[in-house]
Amino acid sequence: MSPQPKSDNNAHTSQPIPQEAFDWYDEYAHGIIDRREFMARLAGLVALGFTMTTLTGALMPNYALAEQVSFNDPSIQASYVKFPSPEGYGEGRGYLVMPASMLIPGKEAGDPKTLDPTKKAPVVLVVHENRGLNPYIEDVARRLAAKGYIAFAPDALYSLGGYPGNDDAGRAMQASLDRSKIELDFIAAARFLKAHPQSNGKLGAVGFCFGGYIVNMLAASIPDELAAGVPFYGTPAATELRSRVKGPLMLQFAALDQRINDTWAEYETQLKANKAEYIAYLYPNVNHGFHNDSTARYDEPTAELAWARTLDFFGKHLQG
């Protein structure tokens, strides 16, 4: 991994939040501790001069902060579309975002007749965290479409009615689902996207946290179909699948994210044994979730650097 310059991981707060709070939030967000324990630990910081409102406001997502490309931006057209997943939950649904240049002017998105069949573009699957298709992930899909990619962000919670508008509820819903069926839904979504009429045939994937795991899983499960994968702070696929990974992969890690980083050495050993094409970056002084601009874990300079590298990587492997 290549170290990068230090940056401020408390950009959304007026005073630094102790690192322990970020670590507790990570444990809470991933089911290691429950909400009662998380709040009890935060209460212990009140003696240091913080209020509970300040702490929860900094750590919990505020999705109004995460819109970089508006849903009505003229450079993109977005719609929700369904896809078949017979081996998963039967049917999936996701957020499909097209560059406006791919459509016939004056038509509405979602109607096949609006597509200009002469235009092709690379496709990128965007995979959410462990709480369903929230506004941050939808915005990531729009960011990709604004750069000329056909982006598709499935919602693993569709079989339960979809992302509920609340991360806590979404996290509980996703935890209740069969993990293997979720994985099959994402494989189905990747194949659905690759076969899109305007796809140039080159499939990329980017994912965050649980989504990073899904990108690693896709690289192991459909290695000949995935042309480029970028997992952000994701764990590797199941051990029995890792020998199939060929890449290319760009793996993005946060130096303060010990839980995920502890999985890397073994995974890298396997990638080397596979002679897989990969590059990995370790960004110092940032937390798990540093790309998510809806919480205080967001680190703008690091997120922008990692995203610029992601776009360069997709440009190299998916364009043309």
In short:
It comes from Shewanella decolorationis S12. With 320 residues, this protein is an alpha/beta fold. Helices cover 35% and strands 19% of the residues.
CATH topology (fold) name of the largest domain = Rossmann fold
Helical/strand content category: alpha/beta
The total strand number stands at 8
Assign a percent range to the helix content.
25-40%
Count of runs of 4 or more consecutive helical residues: 10
Protein name: Dienelactone hydrolase
Transmembrane segments: 42-65
InterPro entries: AB_hydrolase_fold, Dienelactn_hydro, Dienelactone_hydrolase-like, TAT_signal, YqhI_dom
Domain YqhI: 12-43
Describe the structure.
The protein has two domains: 19-59, no CATH class; 76-318, Rossmann fold (3-Layer(aba) Sandwich), CATH 3.40.50. It has helices spanning 19-29, 35-43, 52-59, 135-146, 167-175, 179-194, 210-221, 258-261, 264-274, 300-318, and strands at residues 76-85, 90-99, 121-127, 150-154, 199-208, 226-232, 249-254, 278-283. The protein is α/β, with parallel strands linked by helices and 320 residues long. Helix content is 35%, strand content 19%. It is globular, with a radius of gyration of 19 Å.
Task: Please describe the structure with a list of short key phrases separated by commas or semicolons.
35% helix; Rossmann fold; single chain; 8 strands; disordered N terminus; alpha/beta; 320 residues
